[in-house]
């Protein structure tokens, strides 16, 4: 397991962020304040902890913005499309999160494995639903073509597009 940052171990990251962002203290001033409160932490440890916090906050903000844009884009699409897209996005973020196995800090790693298995099963189930929906739609188009309601060329192009 990798070493934890002193600021995280001592659970003072919230205090560091508050002092830096709200009270506009420098990292040197924060070091002096924390040392006066009995914490053995260096200015560089404080700076690294804050930098790590700022990066995490930026990552969360980016994920939020991506998700909001995605929801706005998919608002008029079928629910399975939305769920499938969100599942893919979630899987992508989960894999980014676990790409550096040494940075994982789980009390029970089987929880992560279980979550990934459930996500993979959900994605497979959604793919089956999508395929069934496409098959039904092609059947409706085929029937419409046979009844003369749908142009045969359109049905052929759609069949090419979906590999039917």
From TrEMBL:
Superkingdom, taxonomy of origin: Bacteria
Pfam families in the record: Phage_Mu_Gp27
Name the UniProt record assigns to this protein: DUF3486 family protein
């Amino acid at each position: 397991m990798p070493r934890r940052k002193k600021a995280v171990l001592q659970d003072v990251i919230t205090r560091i962020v508050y002092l830096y962002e709200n009270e506009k203290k420098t990292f040197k001033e924060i070091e002096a304040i924390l040392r006066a409160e009995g914490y053995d932490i260096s200015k560089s440890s404080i700076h690294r902890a804050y930098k790590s916090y700022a990066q995490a906050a930026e990552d969360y903000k980016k994920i939020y913005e991506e998700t909001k844009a995605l929801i706005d884009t998919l608002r008029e699409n079928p629910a399975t499309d939305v769920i499938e897209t969100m599942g893919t996005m979630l899987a992508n973020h989960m894999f980014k999160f676990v790409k550096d196995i040494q940075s994982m800090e789980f009390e029970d790693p089987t929880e992560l494995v279980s979550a990934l298995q459930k996500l993979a099963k959900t994605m497979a189930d959604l793919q089956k639903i999508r395929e069934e929906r496409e098959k039904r739609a092609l059947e409706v188009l085929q029937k419409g073509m046979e009844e003369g309601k749908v142009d045969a060329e359109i049905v052929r192009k759609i069949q090419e597009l979906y590999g039917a």
